[in-house]
Design brief:
Number of helices: 9
Radius of gyration: 23 Å
Number of domains: 3
Shape: flat
Order of helices and strands: HHHHHHHEHEH
Oligomer: single chain
Distance between the termini: 37 Å
Strand order of the largest sheet: 1-2
Number of strands: 2
Length: about 220
């Protein structure tokens, strides 16, 4: 309490008119440490836009150094090579192939109302490309994303995992039969707004149609 009072009413030119925000949610220079730092995010964006493998390696190095510095679980472990332990290497043909491993990959459940249609369909396309599974989240999915392509192929924007939540947003018989996996949500995770609320300004005509709701009304 004394420390916060000193911050709010002290002579520090930066904190003279406001309390320190802490940086728990948004990065601040003197706030909480973030593994996803602005520098790391910017480097990733440059790597993607330029298609540069070297820039992506720079990004990976930044993230790896942050996990070690922050002492996250990943940063506390080190892969020991066979040569270091005196063991024989396992032949690649004796373990699961990379093509089979990625089939086990799946995205987190995030509705397209919260992260945008562009982000939602991009995740679906990525998972369908590598053979993994994307998750609709609790916001449903546009019906045209179930439809096969003109050549009969699977729609690359179709999410394999269809989530059913307490609000049953967008849940119809058609929605469920077009799933490879049905996921029933039994607990609330992180959401925009006040826990599970999608603010009204994000409920546009498209989202309202999919969720069988009214545009502009919070959900």
């Amino acid at each position: 309490t004394v420390s916060r009072h000193a911050d709010g009413f002290g002579n520090d030119p930066v904190l003279r008119n406001s309390l320190e925000v802490g940086g728990e949610y948004m990065f601040r220079m003197r706030g909480e440490a973030h593994i996803w730092s602005p520098d790391a995010v910017a480097t990733l964006q440059h790597a993607v836009r330029q298609g540069s493998w070297q820039t992506f390696k720079d990004y990976s190095a930044q993230i790896d150094s942050e996990t070690a510095r922050a002492q996250s679980i990943r940063g506390l472990f080190k892969i020991r090579l066979a040569e270091e332990t005196g063991r024989k290497k396992v032949a690649l043909d004796e373990v699961m192939s990379a093509a089979d491993i990625v089939k086990r990959f799946s995205t987190g459940a995030m509705s397209f109302g919260s992260i945008s249609r562009e982000a939602h369909t991009t995740l679906a396309r990525a998972m369908n490309t590598i053979g993994g599974k994307s998750n609709t989240g609790e916001g449903g999915e546009e019906a045209d994303r179930y439809l096969p392509l003109p050549d009969g192929g699977k729609n690359p924007e179709r999410s394999a995992i269809k989530q059913v939540a307490s609000g049953r947003f967008g849940v119809t018989a058609e929605y469920l039969v077009n799933s490879d996996v049905m996921q029933i949500k039994v607990a609330q995770g992180a959401k925009p707004g006040e826990g599970g609320q999608l603010p009204g300004h994000k409920v546009d005509a498209t989202i309202a149609k999919v969720r069988h709701s009214t545009p502009g009304v919070g959900l």
